[in-house]
Design goal:
The complex is a heterotrimer of chains A (about 270), B (about 325) and C (about 260). Chain A contains eleven helices and no strands. The mean pLDDT of chain A is about 80. The radius of gyration of chain C is 19 Å and the shape is globular. The two termini of chain C are about 30 Å apart. Classes of the chains: A mainly alpha (about 270), B alpha/beta (about 325), C mainly alpha (about 260). Chains in contact: A-B, A-C, B-C.
């Protein structure tokens, strides 16, 4: 129980930290929306021509984009750069001395960040949705349940990917390149911008196998009711397998990183 | 002609005021509060060319803030400032050609390239003529012993080696003034000696004005002739070191080691007014005396009558005790000191 | 500062940075790779999009690819040469800006050249290749004025990009938290430049033409080159816009500098 308390404290501290600088906090929130505005208009223009594309209509697409926005906002830049920043500044030495499991601690902090930012984003998102006239949230409680499970999986999967890339900073000299690469890969293969149903056969097959789809595509398609219930169980199973694999992979990267630190110092 | 002149110099910072806990954080989001921190206030300085000045004070007194205003890093909140006749902030680039700066905890060197490459880069940046550069390089390499590590990259140097390189960098372009902020922090005694010698030589032979902040009072006594003490943002002493000593360090002490057991009662009786035994054990004794009343020779003679002196050690008057007392608030320096 | 001295110092710093980067070979290659991958993903995105849908508002796929590619290219140049501006937040918070302020060189130049981004090379190469391909698949009437326009566009676009990102990074003087989303957000707004501006509603069109003139980097030049609209020659305003952006960026920097606290001792 003391262990849980330790990590719970991380969550609380993270909430405080995220909201510590108010201007930055609000700007971080706003920036989540900005990237989606361009996409929103792009799709609107696309849909003026035809009513159903890739098995989705405009109402579906709007719902899809809203969920995409929401899941992206749960883990934002502040989480993304925390690990790499600790490494650049050398502050990580201080964090490593603490009697906590670094990976779990990071997860707790990310949860805190997510609560602090995600809540506000969700609230604004709902307002936004009502404004654009989106009126088709899922009907059945079962769908809502599956949706919430999907969101939880999305959170953990994204955390692990962000965390692993963050650890790569032990080997690179930092800079935006690596983070842009991560975003690019995640945005593309998670279906954040183009739903996976649009992908040509071979690409879709690849995307179905990768862990990224759990981040956006799965919760979004569940939400708009486009993921057949027959597939849900299988999808969750694959996601769970990926989460386990990534969790252990992260530990492996960590192990190598620690070796590098103790050998080379600094 | 004063190379550094300030009148009523002030600097204050705004700092957010937050209550602890998650609730406090949320409250701050909605209604933020700030408070003003005054770092430096009403600082008047007048430093002439060729002087070597020590700028001393406890942590957080405003030393670094003053230096940063004099070097053009911080914009003063109020007051006037002139360095070499220029405003250091508004005419920063012109001023930077006339000054050299050494920050104890930061280096001017590039981290990943050999030191000599950093030197040439900086030579180009400061537009130092080839001949001057070559002469200075030879001179500094000799005086500071840089030859052995000129080709190593900065990340491989020890703190002492890096500091010596930073000193060379600061003076490479023949500036009129050199500012040093904690230059000997963390260094061993041998290196400190070397650096002090270097600073004295440069001040004496080249007339470079030196302004030095340090917690090491030996640095100050060795290199500087003038002392300015700042505490909680205000200057509380500005004068010669000798003057401070004369005014506040009235005592000197002698410590002796005796060949035979000291008779304490007798020893105490033998001390005249103005001479006091501070500590005494069987074979050792420390005696403090008013240095304006007695010379060391006088006191030694007095002691030798009371004990069999085998060895002795004379303590020079030093400002350490004065400054310590000032820091700890036990000594209020009079105005106009 | 005199121009040739600026250029001289810039190339000195650039050469120094390249030398240092080449020491870390693995890192260099990873970054190079990441730049290229990112841009290929961008193109794949367009490919996927276009495979299922008809031309958007009359713009063919390869025409949009051309806009995209030219933006990749300038982004690459800027990322490569001026990566230092992304370090401003770090420099401010660790008080490392002091060093720059003590030297008789423009602190802006020092900040811009503080680091180079190897991923920029990947961007440049992919951008260039895509440009060539797109050019071969689209119709442009190459008159003299259009040929002369190209170098003007490239230089101005790089300047605009740099100035905007630099100014956005200067927000670090005001927003003192360690993570600052503002510069990234402004950078992402360049996404608006990748598509025809007419796609968006009027307030947004105004925004990316006047406030953050990204429209001048991609859309307007494309309109000019493809002769889509009669007002296409407005594209020749791009150097004016560039100068304007530089002036503002510089002002933002010096305004922010007044707030610089120089933390640490």
């Amino acid at each position: 129980m003391a262990v849980m308390k330790k990590y719970a404290r991380h969550v609380l501290c993270a909430i405080q930290e995220t909201t510590a600088y108010r201007a930055s906090y609000f700007i971080n929130i706003v920036s989540q929306f900005v990237s989606y505005i361009a996409i929103f208009f792009l799709w609107r223009a696309v849909y003026t021509g035809s009513s159903v594309i890739g098995g989705m209509d405009w109402s579906d697409m709007q719902g899809y984009l809203l969920i995409s926005l929401f899941t992206s906002a749960l883990i934002s830049g502040s989480s993304e750069f925390r690990v790499s920043r600790a490494i650049w500044t050398g502050n990580i030495a201080v964090e490593l001395v603490r009697p906590v499991d670094y990976q779990t601690a990071n997860l707790s902090i990310t949860v805190g960040n997510g609560i602090a930012e995600g809540v506000l984003v969700a609230a604004i998102g709902i307002v936004f949705a009502l404004l654009i006239g989106f009126a088709a949230p899922p009907a059945s409680p079962v769908t809502w349940l599956c949706f919430l499970v999907a969101v939880a999986c999305s959170f953990i999967t994204k955390f692990l990917i962000v965390y692993i890339f963050g650890l790569f900073t032990f080997w690179t000299t930092g800079g935006m390149g690596l983070s842009w690469l991560r975003r690019g890969l995640t945005d593309f293969f998670s279906g954040a911008i183009i739903p996976l149903s649009f992908f040509p056969g071979w690409l879709k097959a690849a995307a179905d196998v990768l862990p990224f789809r759990g981040i956006v595509s799965v919760p979004a398609t569940i939400f708009i009711g486009r993921l057949p219930s027959s597939q849900i169980l299988l999808t969750f199973a694959v996601e769970a397998a990926w989460i386990a694999a990534l969790w252990f992979f992260a530990r492996l990267v960590w192990y190598f990183a620690m070796r590098k630190v103790t050998i080379h110092g600094g | 002609m004063n190379v550094i002149e300030t009148k009523g110099l002030c600097k204050s910072f705004r700092s957010p005021l937050k209550k602890p806990g998650v609730l406090g954080a949320v409250r701050h989001l909605v209604k933020p509060e700030h408070r003003e921190i005054i770092a430096v206030t009403e600082v008047d300085l007048a430093i002439a060319a060729g002087e070597s000045v020590a700028y001393v004070g406890p942590n957080g007194a405003g030393k670094s803030t003053t230096i940063k205003m004099l070097t053009g890093i911080l914009l003063p909140t109020g007051g006037e400032v002139r360095v070499n006749g220029l405003h250091p902030y508004h005419q920063r680039m012109r001023n930077s050609k006339n000054i050299g700066v050494v920050f104890g905890q930061r280096t001017q060197l590039w981290w990943d390239i050999p030191v000599i490459e950093s030197f040439t880069l900086l030579r180009d940046i400061y537009e130092v003529p080839e001949k001057t550069y070559a002469e200075n390089l030879a001179y500094f390499t000799g005086m500071l012993g840089l030859a052995e590590f000129l080709n190593q990259s900065a990340r491989r140097l020890s703190l002492g080696q890096r500091m010596r390189c930073d000193l060379a960098v600061a003076l490479m372009h023949n500036p009129a003034i050199v500012f040093l902020d904690e230059p000997t922090i963390g260094l061993d005694v041998a290196v400190k000696e070397r650096i002090r010698e270097f600073l004295k030589t440069v001040n004496r032979e080249r007339g470079v004005t030196i302004m030095l902040t340090s917690h090491d009072l030996d640095d100050i006594e060795d290199v500087c002739r003038r002392l300015i003490i700042i505490d909680t943002g205000r200057i509380i002493y500005d004068g010669s070191i000798q003057g401070l000593l004369d005014k506040y360090v009235k005592q000197r002490s002698i410590r002796i080691i005796a060949g035979a057991k000291i008779d304490k009662a007798q020893a105490v009786g033998a001390m005249p007014a103005g001479v006091e035994i501070v500590t005494a054990s069987d074979r050792e004794m420390t005696v403090e005396f008013d240095r304006f009343r007695y010379t060391a020779k006088d006191v030694l003679e007095i002691i030798m009558k009371a004990a069999e002196v085998v060895d002795f050690q004379l303590e020079e008057p030093d400002i350490e005790r004065v400054v310590k007392n000032v820091y700890e608030g036990r000594l209020e320096l009079e105005q106009g000191d | 500062m005199r121009l040739n001295r600026t250029v001289f110092l810039f190339s000195r710093f650039l050469a120094q940075n390249i030398k240092i980067k080449l020491e870390y070979k693995a890192d260099f290659i990873i970054m190079l790779f990441s730049g290229a991958v990112l841009q290929i993903l961008g193109v794949m995105f367009l490919g996927v999009l276009y495979s299922r849908i008809p031309p958007i508002q009359g713009w063919m796929m390869w025409e949009i690819v051309l806009i995209l590619a030219s933006i990749f290219f300038t982004e690459g140049v800027v990322s490569f040469a001026f990566e230092g501006m992304w370090r401003i937040v770090r420099l401010i918070n660790l008080g490392d800006l002091d060093r720059f302020l003590l030297r008789p060189v423009s602190p802006i130049l020092q900040i811009l050249t503080y680091d180079i981004g190897a991923h920029g090379i990947g961007n440049m190469i992919t951008g260039l290749i895509l440009c060539v391909i797109a050019l071969s698949r689209t119709q442009i009437l190459w008159t003299w004025d259009r040929i002369l326009y190209l170098p003007v566009l490239i230089v101005s676009a790089a300047a605009i990009r740099t100035a905007i990102s630099f100014a956005a990074n200067c927000s670090g003087f005001w927003l003192t938290s360690f993570y600052n989303a503002f510069p990234l957000m402004v950078h992402q707004m360049a996404d608006f430049a990748k598509y025809p501006t007419t796609l968006f509603t009027e307030p947004i069109q105004f925004f990316i033409t006047v406030v953050l003139p990204y429209a001048f980097i991609g859309y307007i030049p494309a309109v000019y080159l493809f002769n889509k609209q009669p007002w296409g020659a407005a594209a020749w305003l791009v150097p004016v816009v560039a100068v304007w952006c530089i002036v503002i960026a510089r002002a933002v920097f010096y305004r922010g500098l007044r707030r610089y606290d120089s933390p640490g001792n």
